Amino acid sequence: MGQLKAQGYQARTVKNEMRVNLVAKLRSGETLFPGIVGYDDTVVPQIVNAVLGRHDFILLGLRGQAKSRLLRQLVTLLDEEVPILAGSEVNDDPLAPISKHGRQLIESEGDQAPVEWIHRDHRYVEKLATPDVTIADVIGDMDPIKAARGGHILADELTIHFGLLPRANRGIFAINELPDLAGKIQVGLFNILQEGDVQVKGYPIRLALDVFMVFTANPEDYTARGKIITPLKDRIGAEIRTHYPEEVETGVEITRQEAWANRDGVEVEVPDFVEEVVERIAFLAREDKRIDQRSGVSQRVPITVVESVISNAERRAYRLGENPVVPRISDIYASLPSITGKMELEYEGELHGHEKIARELIAGAAHRTFQLRAGGADVEDIVEYFEQGGALQIGEDSGAEACVQGFGIVPGLLELVERVGLAPAAGSDGRKAGACELVLESLVAERRITRSSSGGYRRAPHEGPSGPLGPGGGFQPFGEG
Fold first, then answer.
1. pLDDT confidence of 225, banded at 50, 70, 90?
2. With the C-alpha atoms ordered 15, 17, 19, 25, is the resulting torsion angle positive or negative?
3. Predicted structure pTM score
4. Which residue(s) pair with 161 in the sheet?
């Protein structure tokens, strides 16, 4: 410790430390939260304001909105390493120890007291709040074994086994899903942070903890499962709302970043219109009245769907010896388990069922994508082919070349996808097949043709179009073959 003093070391509170480092990053123009997309003009400025103001804060938002990832990246605002007294369980500052162990070490060793350095990664402590969390988990408990081995009475502070919060001293303490934490534990948190004291098994202890507190919560939790006690909520300096991507392009960028698309030893080519259809499934689901919007439709939906789509195309490619692997629209239908398991339905939705709603979302997403990319394109020759009794059976396990040959039977279909730029003439058969499926799925959504569950297309069971499927519960049943 004497060497530390000689070097002019001065202690800083963790909030001051984070503020100083944040100011340096802002001045240098460094990216504050790498990998966080879509929050540059909304969430990130509010987090910056909270840190600059030395405020604890809570991220309030639905599932799949990168709340935990944001909290974990706060570690980059800490110093790379800080000194602590050797052997301290609560990261005692050498110049201002808060534990009895630290104070005794200074008394006995003086300037010879040994100092250790801890990396900032070890100064972040995270706890998922569940109803079974106890005071012992968060604050601490008396340890009779520790007392016996050290020859201490149970009333001695040295017999305490510290919980997660004291161990986060001089660092960041994060609690996920705060409303799930029992009220008495929230009181304990508030008391030790506000007053600096708490009772463990009737023994009062005082710990002047230096902690930056951050929380996450789902708005649904405030009424469905629990609540945040008023004194603790009042102490939280900022309530920052997160959100889903506001633009499809932003969602596609997030999905590209997060989805596992680079398979080992396999060339994968995901057409951009397939990515867009997958992303629009989530966007439509977030507007559908049959889906519980209080629960939300996580950004994990398009991420896992893209991975499943690639896997289905990969399976087909291995069997048929195709290279590269090119997913098609039909592969999205093979990925229904990645959609249905992530949707919470309202009563009306339960009447329809998860799979039916998911199929309609896929068709609606395909229709919207085609209309934005090729709205106004002449599809009458294609519709007329089916109206005159033509049919097309393309299985999801059919090879790309065979699919293109099959689609060539439909007048004007291949020419259309080339003309509107969905699949250039020199493009791969896989992309052409996917583009043709996009056109046909759009016509299915308009109910101008119908799609069987096995992937076949034929005339609709009624004459003429009756309008496209749309969000907000406006989907209507269409033929299943």
1. low
2. negative
3. 0.86
4. 141
pLDDT digits (tens, 9 = 90+) for 324-334: 999 999 999 99
Under DSSP, is residue 475 helix (H, G, I), strand (E, B) or coil? coil
Tell me: pLDDT of 128 over 60. Answer: yes
User: Which range has the worst mean pLDDT, 178-187, 248-257, 432-441?
Assistant: 178-187
Ramachandran area for residue 116 (φ above 0: left; ψ -120 to 50: alpha; else beta) = beta
- For the cut 70, the answer to whether the pLDDT of residue 38 exceeds it is yes
Closest CA to 242 of 47, 7, 89, 84: 47
- What is d(CA 193, CA 181) in angstroms, rounded to the nearest whole number? 16
Has residue 469 got a pLDDT over 60?
no
Residue from 142, 144, 146 nearest 162 by CA: 142
Please write the tens of the pLDDT for every residue from 408-430.
999 999 999 999 999 888 788 99
Q: How far, in Å, CA of 275 to CA of 405, rounded?
A: 24
- The rounded distance, in Å, linking the Cα atoms of 318 and 161 is 56
Sign of the alpha-carbon dihedral angle for 320, 326, 332, 335: positive
Distance CA 101, CA 40 (A): 45
Cα separation, 341 vs 281, in Å, equals: 14
Query: 272-285 vs 429-445: helix axis angle to the nearest 10?
Result: 30
Residue 271 DSSP code: -
Q: Alpha carbon 405 to chain centroid distance?
A: 41
* Per-position b or e across 436-472, b if 16+ CB within 10 A of its CB: bbbbbbbbbbbbbbbbeeebebbbbeeeeeeebbbbe
Residues of the chain with CATH 3.40.50.300: 2-241
Burial class (CB within 10 angstroms; exposed 0-12, middle 13-18, buried 19+) of 89: middle
Q: Provide the strand spans (E) within 238-340.
A: 238-241
The CATH code of the domain at 2-241 is: 3.40.50.300
- The tens digit of pLDDT for each residue in 66-75 reads 999 999 999 9
Per-residue pLDDT at 409: 92
Q: What residue spans of 86-181 are helical by DSSP H?
A: 100-109, 135-138, 144-150, 164-167
Q: Which two tokens stand for residue 204?
A: 């009062």
For 75-107, the pLDDT digits (tens) are 999 999 999 999 898 999 999 898 888 888 999
Nearest-angstrom CA–CA distance, 116 and 85: 6
Summarize the confidence of residues 221-246 as an average pLDDT: 81
Pairing of strands 203-206, 197-200: antiparallel
Peptide bond into 83 cis (omega under 30): no
Euclidean distance between CA atoms 26 and 382, whole angstroms: 56
